[in-house]
Write a structure and sequence with these properties.
heterodimer, A: Arc Repressor Mutant, subunit A, Chorismate lyase, six-stranded antiparallel beta sheet, two-stranded antiparallel sheet, 6 helices, B: alpha+beta, Arc Repressor Mutant, subunit A, globular
Protein backbone atom coordinates (compact mmCIF):
# COMPACT_ATOMS: atom_id res chain seq x y z
CA UNK A 1 0.00 0.00 0.00
CA UNK A 2 1.34 3.41 -0.88
CA UNK A 3 1.66 6.49 1.31
CA UNK A 4 -0.34 9.58 0.45
CA UNK A 5 0.01 13.08 1.85
CA UNK A 6 -3.31 14.51 3.04
CA UNK A 7 -4.66 17.26 0.80
CA UNK A 8 -4.43 20.83 2.11
CA UNK A 9 -8.22 20.91 2.56
CA UNK A 10 -8.22 17.69 4.60
CA UNK A 11 -5.40 19.06 6.77
CA UNK A 12 -7.36 22.24 7.42
CA UNK A 13 -10.58 20.31 8.07
CA UNK A 14 -8.91 17.98 10.58
CA UNK A 15 -7.11 20.85 12.28
CA UNK A 16 -10.44 22.60 12.81
CA UNK A 17 -11.97 19.35 14.09
CA UNK A 18 -9.01 19.09 16.45
CA UNK A 19 -9.61 22.62 17.76
CA UNK A 20 -13.31 21.89 18.26
CA UNK A 21 -12.57 18.57 19.95
CA UNK A 22 -10.13 20.01 22.52
CA UNK A 23 -12.65 22.79 23.24
CA UNK A 24 -9.87 25.36 23.36
CA UNK A 25 -10.69 28.53 25.29
CA UNK A 26 -9.23 30.58 22.47
CA UNK A 27 -11.33 31.58 19.51
CA UNK A 28 -10.82 29.63 16.29
CA UNK A 29 -8.30 31.44 14.07
CA UNK A 30 -9.63 33.39 11.12
CA UNK A 31 -9.51 31.95 7.61
CA UNK A 32 -6.45 34.05 6.82
CA UNK A 33 -4.67 32.97 10.01
CA UNK A 34 -5.46 29.31 9.32
CA UNK A 35 -3.98 29.55 5.83
CA UNK A 36 -0.81 31.11 7.27
CA UNK A 37 -0.47 28.69 10.19
CA UNK A 38 -0.88 25.60 8.02
CA UNK A 39 1.00 27.01 5.00
CA UNK A 40 -1.93 26.35 2.71
CA UNK A 41 -4.04 28.46 0.36
CA UNK A 42 -7.16 30.40 1.37
CA UNK A 43 -8.99 28.24 -1.15
CA UNK A 44 -8.09 25.08 0.74
CA UNK A 45 -9.37 26.66 3.97
CA UNK A 46 -12.65 27.56 2.27
CA UNK A 47 -12.97 24.04 0.93
CA UNK A 48 -12.48 22.65 4.45
CA UNK A 49 -15.11 25.04 5.80
CA UNK A 50 -17.59 23.91 3.14
CA UNK A 51 -17.22 20.33 4.38
CA UNK A 52 -17.61 21.29 8.03
CA UNK A 53 -20.61 23.50 7.22
CA UNK A 54 -22.28 20.63 5.37
CA UNK A 55 -22.25 18.80 8.71
CA UNK A 56 -23.30 21.92 10.62
CA UNK A 57 -20.14 21.53 12.70
CA UNK A 58 -19.29 25.21 12.33
CA UNK A 59 -20.91 28.33 11.06
CA UNK A 60 -19.00 31.16 9.49
CA UNK A 61 -20.17 34.63 10.46
CA UNK A 62 -19.23 37.99 9.06
CA UNK A 63 -17.87 39.53 12.25
CA UNK A 64 -17.18 36.68 14.66
CA UNK A 65 -15.51 34.35 12.16
CA UNK A 66 -15.61 30.57 12.51
CA UNK A 67 -17.84 29.44 15.38
CA UNK A 68 -18.42 25.82 16.44
CA UNK A 69 -22.06 24.75 16.45
CA UNK A 70 -23.48 22.60 19.14
CA UNK A 71 -26.24 20.25 18.20
CA UNK A 72 -28.47 18.66 20.79
CA UNK A 73 -26.96 15.21 21.26
CA UNK A 74 -29.57 12.57 22.01
CA UNK A 75 -28.31 9.53 23.84
CA UNK A 76 -30.28 6.50 22.77
CA UNK A 77 -28.70 4.31 25.38
CA UNK A 78 -31.80 2.55 26.48
CA UNK A 79 -35.52 2.95 26.99
CA UNK A 80 -35.49 6.59 27.88
CA UNK A 81 -38.26 9.01 27.21
CA UNK A 82 -37.61 12.15 25.24
CA UNK A 83 -38.03 14.12 28.46
CA UNK A 84 -35.18 12.18 30.10
CA UNK A 85 -33.04 12.58 27.00
CA UNK A 86 -33.48 16.35 26.95
CA UNK A 87 -33.17 16.78 30.71
CA UNK A 88 -30.37 19.34 30.53
CA UNK A 89 -32.36 21.72 28.40
CA UNK A 90 -35.10 24.03 29.55
CA UNK A 91 -37.80 22.58 27.36
CA UNK A 92 -41.43 23.56 27.34
CA UNK A 93 -43.95 21.02 26.17
CA UNK A 94 -46.90 22.52 24.36
CA UNK A 95 -49.95 20.31 24.00
CA UNK A 96 -51.53 20.93 20.61
CA UNK A 97 -54.47 18.54 20.62
CA UNK A 98 -55.96 15.26 21.81
CA UNK A 99 -58.47 13.42 19.69
CA UNK A 100 -59.99 9.99 19.44
CA UNK A 101 -59.57 8.41 16.04
CA UNK A 102 -60.42 5.14 14.34
CA UNK A 103 -57.34 2.94 14.28
CA UNK A 104 -55.52 3.48 10.99
CA UNK A 105 -54.66 0.28 9.10
CA UNK A 106 -50.89 0.85 9.34
CA UNK A 107 -51.10 0.48 13.13
CA UNK A 108 -52.96 -2.88 12.95
CA UNK A 109 -49.72 -4.78 13.42
CA UNK A 110 -48.82 -2.93 16.59
CA UNK A 111 -52.08 -2.62 18.55
CA UNK A 112 -54.19 -5.64 19.50
CA UNK A 113 -56.97 -6.46 17.11
CA UNK A 114 -59.51 -5.82 19.90
CA UNK A 115 -58.68 -2.11 19.94
CA UNK A 116 -60.59 -0.05 17.43
CA UNK A 117 -60.23 3.50 18.74
CA UNK A 118 -56.97 5.25 19.47
CA UNK A 119 -56.17 8.38 21.43
CA UNK A 120 -53.97 10.65 19.37
CA UNK A 121 -51.95 13.29 21.24
CA UNK A 122 -49.96 15.95 19.39
CA UNK A 123 -47.28 17.95 21.17
CA UNK A 124 -44.39 20.31 20.44
CA UNK A 125 -41.22 20.73 22.49
CA UNK A 126 -39.90 24.26 22.59
CA UNK A 127 -36.56 25.59 23.79
CA UNK A 128 -36.41 29.38 24.29
CA UNK A 129 -39.22 30.01 21.82
CA UNK A 130 -37.64 27.76 19.21
CA UNK A 131 -39.67 24.62 18.42
CA UNK A 132 -37.40 21.56 18.38
CA UNK A 133 -39.64 18.56 17.99
CA UNK A 134 -43.17 17.79 16.92
CA UNK A 135 -44.58 14.48 18.09
CA UNK A 136 -47.71 12.43 17.62
CA UNK A 137 -48.44 9.68 20.15
CA UNK A 138 -51.06 6.94 19.84
CA UNK A 139 -52.58 4.98 22.74
CA UNK A 140 -55.28 2.35 22.79
CA UNK A 141 -58.42 4.10 24.09
CA UNK A 142 -59.72 0.95 25.86
CA UNK A 143 -56.49 0.56 27.74
CA UNK A 144 -55.98 4.15 28.88
CA UNK A 145 -59.34 5.96 28.76
CA UNK A 146 -58.27 8.69 31.21
CA UNK A 147 -55.57 9.97 28.88
CA UNK A 148 -58.24 11.63 26.80
CA UNK A 149 -58.90 14.18 29.54
CA UNK A 150 -55.36 15.13 30.46
CA UNK A 151 -53.67 18.35 29.51
CA UNK A 152 -50.08 17.32 28.75
CA UNK A 153 -48.69 20.84 28.70
CA UNK A 154 -45.30 20.56 30.43
CA UNK A 155 -46.30 17.13 31.67
CA UNK A 156 -44.11 14.21 30.64
CA UNK A 157 -46.21 11.27 29.38
CA UNK A 158 -44.09 8.54 30.89
CA UNK A 159 -44.07 10.12 34.34
CA UNK A 160 -47.84 10.29 34.18
CA UNK A 161 -48.16 6.65 33.06
CA UNK A 162 -45.91 5.52 35.87
CA UNK A 163 -47.85 7.46 38.47
CA UNK A 164 -51.33 6.71 37.21
CA UNK A 165 -50.99 3.18 35.88
CA UNK A 166 -47.68 1.98 37.41
CA UNK A 167 -46.50 1.26 33.89
CA UNK A 168 -42.99 1.46 32.59
CA UNK A 169 -41.90 0.45 29.09
CA UNK A 170 -39.72 -2.68 28.99
CA UNK A 171 -38.89 -3.15 25.34
CA UNK A 172 -38.91 -0.96 22.28
CA UNK A 173 -37.80 -0.59 18.75
CA UNK A 174 -37.22 2.57 16.82
CA UNK A 175 -36.76 3.37 13.20
CA UNK A 176 -35.18 6.55 11.95
CA UNK A 177 -35.65 7.99 8.50
CA UNK A 178 -35.61 11.45 6.95
CA UNK A 179 -38.39 13.51 5.42
CA UNK A 180 -38.68 17.04 4.13
CA UNK A 181 -41.01 19.24 6.19
CA UNK A 182 -44.46 19.54 4.65
CA UNK A 183 -46.57 22.67 5.08
CA UNK A 184 -48.11 21.58 8.39
CA UNK A 185 -44.82 20.45 9.92
CA UNK A 186 -42.99 23.57 8.79
CA UNK A 187 -45.66 25.77 10.39
CA UNK A 188 -45.55 23.88 13.67
CA UNK A 189 -41.75 23.81 13.78
CA UNK A 190 -41.42 27.38 12.40
CA UNK A 191 -39.02 26.38 9.65
CA UNK A 192 -38.96 26.68 5.86
CA UNK A 193 -40.91 24.03 3.96
CA UNK A 194 -38.70 21.17 2.73
CA UNK A 195 -36.25 21.50 5.63
CA UNK A 196 -34.81 18.01 6.30
CA UNK A 197 -36.32 16.40 9.42
CA UNK A 198 -35.50 13.26 11.33
CA UNK A 199 -38.61 11.10 11.39
CA UNK A 200 -38.34 8.80 14.39
CA UNK A 201 -40.96 6.13 14.90
CA UNK A 202 -40.95 4.22 18.12
CA UNK A 203 -42.96 1.23 19.22
CA UNK A 204 -42.92 0.61 22.96
CA UNK A 205 -44.13 -2.35 24.96
CA UNK A 206 -44.57 -3.16 28.66
CA UNK A 207 -45.05 -6.42 30.65
CA UNK A 208 -45.02 -9.46 28.42
CA UNK A 209 -44.99 -7.57 25.17
CA UNK A 210 -48.22 -5.63 25.62
CA UNK A 211 -48.26 -2.66 23.24
CA UNK A 212 -48.01 0.59 25.22
CA UNK A 213 -47.76 3.41 22.72
CA UNK A 214 -46.32 4.32 19.37
CA UNK A 215 -44.89 7.74 18.64
CA UNK A 216 -43.79 9.54 15.52
CA UNK A 217 -41.39 12.38 16.19
CA UNK A 218 -40.19 15.02 13.80
CA UNK A 219 -36.93 16.72 14.75
CA UNK A 220 -35.24 19.57 12.90
CA UNK A 221 -32.28 17.91 11.14
CA UNK A 222 -29.68 20.61 11.71
CA UNK A 223 -30.36 20.85 15.46
CA UNK A 224 -29.92 17.24 16.55
CA UNK A 225 -27.59 14.32 16.45
CA UNK A 226 -27.94 10.89 17.98
CA UNK A 227 -25.51 8.62 19.66
CA UNK A 228 -25.64 4.97 20.61
CA UNK A 229 -23.31 3.17 22.92
CA UNK A 230 -23.37 -0.60 22.56
CA UNK A 231 -21.29 -2.71 24.91
CA UNK A 232 -19.86 -6.14 24.12
CA UNK A 233 -21.18 -6.11 20.57
CA UNK A 234 -19.65 -9.51 19.80
CA UNK A 235 -21.56 -11.25 22.59
CA UNK A 236 -24.78 -11.34 20.59
CA UNK A 237 -24.57 -15.12 20.31
CA UNK A 238 -25.00 -15.64 24.02
CA UNK A 239 -28.41 -14.03 23.97
CA UNK A 240 -29.86 -16.62 21.64
CA UNK B 1 -5.13 -37.32 -2.29
CA UNK B 2 -8.87 -37.34 -2.70
CA UNK B 3 -10.73 -34.07 -3.09
CA UNK B 4 -12.58 -34.82 0.15
CA UNK B 5 -9.33 -35.07 2.08
CA UNK B 6 -8.11 -31.78 0.64
CA UNK B 7 -11.42 -30.13 1.42
CA UNK B 8 -11.23 -31.44 4.97
CA UNK B 9 -7.65 -30.24 5.36
CA UNK B 10 -8.56 -26.74 4.13
CA UNK B 11 -11.60 -26.74 6.36
CA UNK B 12 -9.51 -27.48 9.46
CA UNK B 13 -7.06 -24.71 8.48
CA UNK B 14 -10.01 -22.31 8.23
CA UNK B 15 -11.57 -23.27 11.55
CA UNK B 16 -8.14 -23.34 13.21
CA UNK B 17 -7.53 -19.74 12.19
CA UNK B 18 -4.69 -20.48 9.77
CA UNK B 19 -6.86 -18.73 7.17
CA UNK B 20 -8.85 -16.09 9.12
CA UNK B 21 -12.27 -14.82 7.89
CA UNK B 22 -12.00 -12.39 5.01
CA UNK B 23 -8.51 -13.38 3.96
CA UNK B 24 -8.06 -14.88 0.55
CA UNK B 25 -7.48 -18.56 -0.01
CA UNK B 26 -4.45 -19.41 -2.17
CA UNK B 27 -5.35 -19.58 -5.86
CA UNK B 28 -6.31 -22.92 -7.38
CA UNK B 29 -2.92 -23.05 -9.10
CA UNK B 30 -1.12 -22.52 -5.78
CA UNK B 31 -3.25 -25.16 -4.08
CA UNK B 32 -2.56 -27.51 -6.97
CA UNK B 33 1.20 -27.31 -6.47
CA UNK B 34 0.81 -27.44 -2.69
CA UNK B 35 -1.19 -30.69 -2.73
CA UNK B 36 0.36 -32.14 -5.90
CA UNK B 37 -2.97 -33.13 -7.44
CA UNK B 38 -4.88 -32.30 -10.61
CA UNK B 39 -6.68 -29.00 -11.08
CA UNK B 40 -9.99 -30.87 -11.24
CA UNK B 41 -9.42 -32.34 -7.78
CA UNK B 42 -8.61 -28.89 -6.37
CA UNK B 43 -11.69 -27.39 -7.99
CA UNK B 44 -13.92 -30.13 -6.54
CA UNK B 45 -12.41 -29.57 -3.07
CA UNK B 46 -12.96 -25.79 -3.30
CA UNK B 47 -16.46 -26.23 -4.73
CA UNK B 48 -17.36 -28.32 -1.73
CA UNK B 49 -16.19 -25.56 0.66
CA UNK B 50 -18.10 -22.98 -1.38
CA UNK B 51 -21.29 -25.04 -1.24
CA UNK B 52 -20.84 -25.42 2.54
CA UNK B 53 -20.64 -21.62 2.79
CA UNK B 54 -17.12 -21.72 4.23
CA UNK B 55 -15.45 -20.11 1.23
CA UNK B 56 -16.82 -17.35 -0.99
CA UNK B 57 -15.98 -17.18 -4.66
CA UNK B 58 -16.04 -13.56 -5.86
CA UNK B 59 -15.98 -13.02 -9.61
CA UNK B 60 -12.71 -11.44 -10.62
CA UNK B 61 -11.32 -11.28 -7.07
CA UNK B 62 -10.79 -14.93 -6.20
CA UNK B 63 -11.57 -17.04 -3.17
CA UNK B 64 -12.18 -15.66 0.32
CA UNK B 65 -12.75 -17.26 3.69
CA UNK B 66 -16.38 -16.60 4.61
CA UNK B 67 -17.14 -14.20 7.47
CA UNK B 68 -18.20 -15.62 10.84
CA UNK B 69 -20.55 -12.79 11.62
CA UNK B 70 -23.57 -12.93 9.35
CA UNK B 71 -25.69 -9.96 8.42
CA UNK B 72 -28.47 -11.60 10.40
CA UNK B 73 -26.19 -11.52 13.47
CA UNK B 74 -25.66 -7.79 12.98
CA UNK B 75 -29.40 -7.19 12.59
CA UNK B 76 -29.97 -8.94 15.91
CA UNK B 77 -27.51 -6.78 17.84
CA UNK B 78 -29.41 -4.61 20.30
CA UNK B 79 -28.62 -0.95 20.86
CA UNK B 80 -26.86 -0.68 17.48
CA UNK B 81 -28.31 1.42 14.68
CA UNK B 82 -28.29 -0.24 11.28
CA UNK B 83 -29.84 0.34 7.87
CA UNK B 84 -32.88 -1.87 7.33
CA UNK B 85 -31.76 -3.34 3.99
CA UNK B 86 -28.55 -4.68 5.51
CA UNK B 87 -29.59 -8.29 5.06
CA UNK B 88 -29.45 -8.13 1.28
CA UNK B 89 -26.28 -9.17 -0.51
CA UNK B 90 -24.06 -6.36 -1.64
CA UNK B 91 -21.40 -5.44 -4.15
CA UNK B 92 -18.30 -3.77 -2.80
CA UNK B 93 -15.98 -1.67 -4.91
CA UNK B 94 -12.78 -0.43 -3.26
CA UNK B 95 -12.15 3.15 -4.34
CA UNK B 96 -9.03 4.04 -2.51
CA UNK B 97 -6.65 2.47 -0.05
CA UNK B 98 -3.47 4.11 1.18
CA UNK B 99 -1.47 5.07 4.23
CA UNK B 100 -1.63 8.56 5.69
CA UNK B 101 -0.27 10.32 8.74
CA UNK B 102 -2.43 10.19 11.86
CA UNK B 103 -2.34 13.99 12.25
CA UNK B 104 -3.61 16.10 15.16
CA UNK B 105 -7.31 15.17 15.11
CA UNK B 106 -6.94 11.40 14.83
CA UNK B 107 -4.13 11.49 17.37
CA UNK B 108 -6.84 12.52 19.86
CA UNK B 109 -9.26 9.86 18.65
CA UNK B 110 -6.80 6.94 18.62
CA UNK B 111 -4.62 8.26 21.44
CA UNK B 112 -1.41 7.72 19.45
CA UNK B 113 1.30 9.99 18.06
CA UNK B 114 0.33 12.27 15.14
CA UNK B 115 3.39 10.91 13.31
CA UNK B 116 2.14 7.32 13.16
CA UNK B 117 0.36 5.86 10.14
CA UNK B 118 -3.27 5.08 9.40
CA UNK B 119 -4.81 2.97 6.70
CA UNK B 120 -7.36 5.04 4.83
CA UNK B 121 -9.70 2.76 2.91
CA UNK B 122 -12.81 3.97 1.14
CA UNK B 123 -15.27 1.96 -0.84
CA UNK B 124 -18.74 1.98 -2.30
CA UNK B 125 -21.14 -0.78 -1.29
CA UNK B 126 -24.20 -1.25 -3.47
CA UNK B 127 -27.10 -2.96 -1.76
CA UNK B 128 -30.30 -3.42 -3.74
CA UNK B 129 -29.22 -0.59 -6.01
CA UNK B 130 -28.62 1.76 -3.06
CA UNK B 131 -25.14 3.13 -2.68
CA UNK B 132 -23.27 3.50 0.60
CA UNK B 133 -20.03 5.43 0.82
CA UNK B 134 -17.73 3.94 3.42
CA UNK B 135 -14.45 5.17 4.83
CA UNK B 136 -12.43 3.13 7.31
CA UNK B 137 -9.44 4.40 9.29
CA UNK B 138 -7.23 1.84 11.00
CA UNK B 139 -3.99 2.54 12.89
CA UNK B 140 -1.08 0.58 11.41
CA UNK B 141 0.29 -0.42 14.83
CA UNK B 142 -2.86 -2.44 15.51
CA UNK B 143 -3.32 -3.85 12.00
CA UNK B 144 0.25 -4.58 10.83
CA UNK B 145 -0.88 -6.57 7.81
CA UNK B 146 -4.44 -5.57 7.03
CA UNK B 147 -5.71 -6.67 3.64
CA UNK B 148 -8.25 -4.15 2.32
CA UNK B 149 -9.74 -6.67 -0.11
CA UNK B 150 -11.25 -8.57 2.84
CA UNK B 151 -13.86 -5.79 2.96
CA UNK B 152 -15.34 -7.27 -0.20
CA UNK B 153 -16.68 -10.20 1.79
CA UNK B 154 -16.41 -9.42 5.50
CA UNK B 155 -18.57 -6.83 7.28
CA UNK B 156 -16.49 -4.03 8.82
CA UNK B 157 -17.64 -5.07 12.28
CA UNK B 158 -15.76 -8.34 11.75
CA UNK B 159 -12.80 -6.90 9.81
CA UNK B 160 -11.93 -4.61 12.75
CA UNK B 161 -11.51 -7.71 14.92
CA UNK B 162 -8.53 -8.88 12.90
CA UNK B 163 -6.07 -6.57 14.67
CA UNK B 164 -3.79 -7.14 17.67
CA UNK B 165 -6.12 -5.42 20.15
CA UNK B 166 -9.72 -6.53 19.69
CA UNK B 167 -12.61 -4.10 20.04
CA UNK B 168 -15.53 -4.99 22.31
CA UNK B 169 -17.66 -1.83 22.37
CA UNK B 170 -19.17 0.32 19.65
CA UNK B 171 -19.92 4.02 19.99
CA UNK B 172 -22.08 5.37 17.19
CA UNK B 173 -22.78 8.91 16.19
CA UNK B 174 -25.67 9.39 13.80
CA UNK B 175 -26.63 12.64 12.11
CA UNK B 176 -28.20 14.35 9.17
CA UNK B 177 -25.72 16.24 7.00
CA UNK B 178 -25.81 17.73 3.50
CA UNK B 179 -24.24 16.11 0.47
CA UNK B 180 -21.08 17.97 -0.51
CA UNK B 181 -20.17 17.94 -4.18
CA UNK B 182 -17.82 15.00 -3.62
CA UNK B 183 -20.40 12.96 -1.70
CA UNK B 184 -23.17 13.70 -4.19
CA UNK B 185 -20.99 12.31 -7.00
CA UNK B 186 -20.16 9.15 -5.08
CA UNK B 187 -23.73 8.48 -4.00
CA UNK B 188 -25.16 9.63 -7.35
CA UNK B 189 -27.53 12.11 -5.75
CA UNK B 190 -28.01 15.88 -6.01
CA UNK B 191 -25.75 18.27 -4.21
CA UNK B 192 -27.02 19.55 -0.80
CA UNK B 193 -29.68 16.86 -0.37
CA UNK B 194 -29.81 15.30 3.11
CA UNK B 195 -27.44 12.43 3.84
CA UNK B 196 -27.25 10.26 6.95
CA UNK B 197 -23.73 10.06 8.35
CA UNK B 198 -22.99 7.26 10.79
CA UNK B 199 -19.66 7.42 12.63
CA UNK B 200 -18.65 4.16 14.28
CA UNK B 201 -15.88 4.10 16.88
CA UNK B 202 -14.79 0.59 17.82
CA UNK B 203 -13.00 0.43 21.16
CA UNK B 204 -11.27 -2.16 23.32
CA UNK B 205 -12.21 -3.05 26.89
CA UNK B 206 -9.75 -0.35 27.97
CA UNK B 207 -11.78 2.18 25.95
CA UNK B 208 -9.02 2.58 23.39
CA UNK B 209 -10.38 3.33 19.93
CA UNK B 210 -8.88 0.93 17.37
CA UNK B 211 -11.02 1.62 14.31
CA UNK B 212 -13.13 4.46 12.91
CA UNK B 213 -15.75 3.98 10.24
CA UNK B 214 -17.78 6.65 8.44
CA UNK B 215 -20.87 5.58 6.54
CA UNK B 216 -22.81 7.94 4.27
CA UNK B 217 -26.21 7.10 2.80
CA UNK B 218 -28.93 8.94 0.92
CA UNK B 219 -31.20 10.04 3.76
CA UNK B 220 -34.40 10.21 1.75
CA UNK B 221 -34.28 6.55 0.75
CA UNK B 222 -32.68 4.91 3.79
CA UNK B 223 -34.42 3.77 6.94
CA UNK B 224 -32.57 2.66 10.06
CA UNK B 225 -33.69 0.56 12.95
CA UNK B 226 -32.54 -0.01 16.49
CA UNK B 227 -33.88 -2.30 19.23
CA UNK B 228 -33.70 -1.74 22.96
CA UNK B 229 -34.37 -4.03 25.85
Amino acid sequence: MEFKERSAAVKAQEYLQYLIQIKSEQAIPSQRELAEQLHISRNAVMHALERLKSEKLVSVKERTGIVPNSKIDINMLNMQSMTAELKDKSIDIKHLSTEVITKPSELNDFFNSSSTKLIKIRRVRINQNIPLTYEVVYFDQNQFPQLEEIDFTNKPLYQFLEKQYKIEPTYGRESISCCLADEKQSKILKIAPNTPLYRVQSFNYYNDDIPLETTTQYLVGSQFKYHFNAKNIYDYREEQ
Amino acid sequence: MLFKEISKDLDSKISGGHYPPGTSLPTEAELQSQYQVSRTTIRKAVDQLVSQGKVIRKKGSGLFIAPKISKQNILEMTGVIKPSYLAASDMVKIKDSYFRLVGSYYSLIFDISPQELLYNISFIASIKGKRTLEQVLLPLYNFPDFDASCLKVVPIIEAVKSGKEKPVDLFQNFQLVEATEEVSKQLQIEKNVPVFKTTNLFSTKDSKVVAVEYRLQDALTTRYSVDFS
